[in-house]
Write a structure and sequence with these properties.
625 residues; Immunoglobulin-like; 7 helices; 47 strands; 28% strand; elongated; disordered N terminus
Length: 625
């Protein structure tokens, strides 16, 4: 309440009487420590410190602090007390030629009626020590050291320790002026304390405009204060051509060259647009935009760009000429590196740049491959790309190839192949995908050559397989295509899966449709053919063989006995030892090499089989759960 009354009084005096106190916000060397009562009196904790403004100018002491340090310390020491404001808008001043009185808490308790400006906890040594006055930026304003060990006192000459009942007092030069030579032993003397000390002379000023330089104790004329404590100038009419005060530019308006406010049709554009620009329109947000023919392409496309076409979904796509995948070589003898190839056929009568084409291998679209840089295919030309110039892999089990544009439009795809033989190409011949042993990379495809009785016979054109079939390289028959993503349900007991139709068939029905076996025979469950019961059971009641014959132990049939010529001398034992184990070692080495090569050649297929087995086991476990 006292501070509020003081603030009102100062403000009223400034406005009515025209009095503005002369104040200083800078560091003042004229503020000094004037008196100190240390703890060597009857009550060791009855301490006080007085500071004095040794000039006629008011000095701001906001956030100034007093510190105490031991005799040997050259640091600020421990904080005693500070002149702290209630908030950032408050500034604390010490009037000219006035003092502030600070006492210990113990002295306040001893003398409850004793007034002061601040209080601190008693800690001053009665033998030697330092008191420092530090400003709000950490600079030292004044320092007093006492006792012979306080060598860091001003002038390296500490003041004398006062006797009991006395205090350290700064010498007086003239009324209102105290001595300050920055030599503590010269500036201070031992004196008796005053009967009364002055306090309450410090005052506060509130800065009403934190955003304006200097202190504004009175709100500038026409200004207003916002919620953040900033003073806002009176509004300016920025649209003098419009009725009423326009402190801010009205929504939908812009300023023309004459400084007048005009309706802006395109506020999203930099310049004032009083007329809608050509080739532009307003969107749902009221912004002016170009008419975009290709919203899927970056930037605004007022027209369909060259080399593009509009799709049925109103999307701009690359206008690429069709190409055809014509031949694949997925399985070669030996290592595949640099031997597998994919052949592309240009069905057009002009040269085509492959820069906007990519191809995919396998059943997913996770990875695509670019053709080599600057690749072109001439008109009606075949061109093969090997896996040493483009790092792709054609699986030896099953796969396919798809040709797309770089924006994802399918252009052509091959039919899925299954288990191709070594050095057999999967080729498009007369509109049908089939295997051929005539590899023709870079030229028209040819059907397989079949050798019959030393004569070369070229297979005639075959009837096209159905869409869900492919031609077997072994039988040249059409077989059902099984996609890698499908999974077949296991046949029931008493059934088997037909290789031709991939459907489950009854074993019993097939057996019933067969001609019954003759007496003494049975049907082989594996081959469904008749076989001799005695050959299986090893019946001993067999008809004796004729003279000159014997029974074959493997087939149980009679065969002629071949007589061996008799030698005229007895055979002799040879002395040469057998080295048969060498042949076995050689055979084992060849077998190991073959196994390692097979694992390398079919590595990707083996990994695929392991994954399928894991999937089947997982599904069975899920069903059992």
């Amino acid at each position: 309440m006292y501070r509020l009354y003081l603030l009102v009084l100062v403000t009223f005096s400034s406005v009515v009487c025209g009095f503005v106190p002369q104040i200083s916000g800078a560091i003042s060397s004229n503020v000094v420590i004037s008196q100190i009562q240390i703890g060597n009196i009857a009550s060791a904790s009855n301490e006080f410190i007085e500071i004095y403004n040794n000039s006629p100018t008011d000095v701001e002491i906001t956030n100034w602090c007093l510190y105490y340090a031991s005799a040997s310390s050259i640091q600020n020491g421990s904080k005693l007390t500070c002149f702290l404001p209630e908030n950032d808008s408050i500034h604390i001043y010490l009037p000219g030629n006035s003092s502030a009185y600070l006492i210990s808490n113990q002295l306040s308790t001893t003398n409850p009626s004793l007034g002061s400006d601040l209080k601190f906890s008693a800690t001053l040594s009665g033998t030697a020590g330092h008191v420092r006055l530090i400003d709000n930026v950490g600079a030292e304003v004044d320092k007093v050291g006492w006792g012979i060990t306080a060598l860091s006192a001003e002038g390296a000459s500490p003041a004398t320790v006062p006797t009991v009942g006395k205090v350290l007092g700064r010498k007086t030069i003239s009324p209102n002026i105290l001595q300050d030579t920055d030599v503590n032993s010269d500036d201070f003397e031992i004196i008796s304390p005053l009967v009364t000390y002055t306090y309450g002379s410090i005052y506060e000023i509130q800065d009403l405009c934190l955003n304006i330089a200097d202190i504004q104790s009175v709100l500038p004329e026409g200004y207003s204060v916002d919620i953040a404590g900033n003073c806002m100038p009176p509004p300016v009419d920025i649209c003098s051509n419009l009725d009423g005060l326009q402190a801010i530019l009205p929504n939908g308006y812009g300023i023309d060259a004459n400084g007048d406010c005009q309706v802006d049709l395109c506020q999203n554009l930099d310049r004032l647009q009083q007329i809608l620009p050509d080739n532009m329109g307003l969107d749902d947000n009221g912004d002016c935009v170009f008419h975009d023919e290709c919203s899927n392409l970056p930037g605004i496309q007022p027209e369909i760009p060259d080399g593009y076409k509009m799709s049925d979904d109103n999307v701009c796509l690359l206008d690429l000429l069709p190409l055809q995948i014509s031949e694949l070589l997925p399985n070669v003898t030996g290592l595949d590196d640099g031997k597998e190839f994919i052949e592309i056929y240009n069905t057009n009568d002009i040269d085509i740049d492959l820069g906007n084409y990519v191809f995919y291998v396998g059943t997913d679209d996770d990875t695509f491959y670019n053709f080599p840089t600057d690749s072109h295919i001439g008109a009606s030309q075949y061109m093969a790309f090997y896996n040493d110039e483009v790092e792709f892999t054609l699986l030896n089990t099953t796969s396919s190839v798809r040709l797309k544009s770089i924006d994802g439009v399918l252009i052509d795809e091959s039919l899925i192949y299954f288990s191709p033989k070594d050095d057999f190409a999967w080729a498009l011949i007369d509109g049908t995908w089939q295997y051929t042993n005539q590899l023709t990379p870079g030229s028209a495809n040819l059907p397989s050559i079949v050798e019959v009785d030393s004569e070369v016979v070229i297979e005639s054109s075959l009837e096209t397989c159905a869409a869900n079939q492919y031609r077997s390289p072994e039988t040249n028959r059409c077989r059902l295509i099984i996609t890698t993503s499908s999974s077949l349900v296991a046949c029931k007991d008493g059934q088997y899966r037909s290789e031709e139709t991939n459907r489950c068939r009854s074993i019993a029905s097939d057996v019933n449709a067969l001609t019954p076996c003759a007496e003494g025979q049975e049907r082989n469950p594996e081959t469904n053919r008749c076989r001799s019961i005695t050959a299986v059971l090893g019946d001993s009641a067999l008809m004796p063989c004729k003279e000159g014959q014997e029974r074959n132990p493997e087939t149980n049939r009679c065969r002629n006995i071949v007589s061996m010529p008799q030698a005229e001398y007895a055979p002799e034992q040879t002395a040469v030892s057998s080295n048969g184990y060498v042949g076995w070692l050689a055979l084992a080495g060849v077998g190991i090499v073959a196994i390692v090569y097979a694992i390398w050649e079919w590595r990707q297929e083996i990994v695929g089989v392991i994954r399928k087995i894991r999937l089947l086991i997982t599904r069975k476990n899920d069903k059992s759960i």
